[in-house]
């Protein structure tokens, strides 16, 4: 026999169910901000209510290859970072970063080196009070910053070693600490992320931060959106096809601007989207030839492109086909590509909604200072997605 409930009891039950659904929605969706040494600033704490995780970037992987190490150099402390964010925000230490990969290669080499690395990481997490780590190995298997000096064939062994290193980290950190990994957004760089390796990787990580930015870089020869919708969908679909659950993937947002020098005649005669660039890197060394650049919203605008950037902000347009804000400056032969608040809004239904991903992240929070308008837009859209998820539940 089902007992009758009073109006008060029924109201309390409905309230409890509603709270539980709301908490489930929040737990299901992640909003992660990288907090960087380049721009270690944050908005007021009341604006950060939707941030669920913070990744302090970076600590060098080389620190963890020495047995028995006890000092952990970082530009700030976990305690100080916690004080800037709402109570309950998870704080991770991001290890690695672009170009800082030698320490990972040394760590992944064999069982002994993997164990030493993982034990030291666990010691660091315990000493700093962090909630976990973010592994920024860019990129296992090759195509990193040194790809012209060290051929991918010399790094092929890293493809199998990468999930082994993650497994050792999980064993040392235990089941309750967070392990995430920042992973490539371009399929040409996903050498270590295949149908054979992704299921092995996902056994050990809580989620992947898919770097759906820098999708145009100096290795490209034609213009495209560095953080566009179509290319972002290609990236997340590649991980899903390889075996990653969508709810374990976070979509990346870039709080910075990029520009590239173009070939004038070809861009003038046709669409500036997909038109040729000048050679952007040295074909022998891979070094930057100074024909492209980037800066965050918090950085001073470089004098040599300041006038062109003003035009990009005022006269740029949104590409409805590929999804991305851009401007081609015919006078300076410069291709500009970056996210506006409107472009950020469009990504939530087009990518988060369509693919039902587990969250978002941005590089980086302080990069959007002092106005934080891109972060505020992302936070507002994230709140909307929370409500949608709650309605679905």
TrEMBL record:
SUPFAM superfamilies assigned to the protein according to its UniProt record, in alphabetical order: (Trans)glycosidases
Assigned EC number: 3.2.1.14
GH18 domain: residues covered: 29-393
Assigned keywords, A-Z: Hydrolase, Signal
Domain of life: Eukaryota
GO MF: chitin binding; endochitinase activity
Pfam families in the cross-refs: Glyco_hydro_18 (PF00704)
GO cellular component: extracellular region
Signal peptide positions on this chain: 1-20
A Gene Ontology biological process term: chitin catabolic process
Keyword Aminoacyl-tRNA synthetase belongs to the record: no
Protein name: chitinase
Species of the source: Dichotomopilus funicola
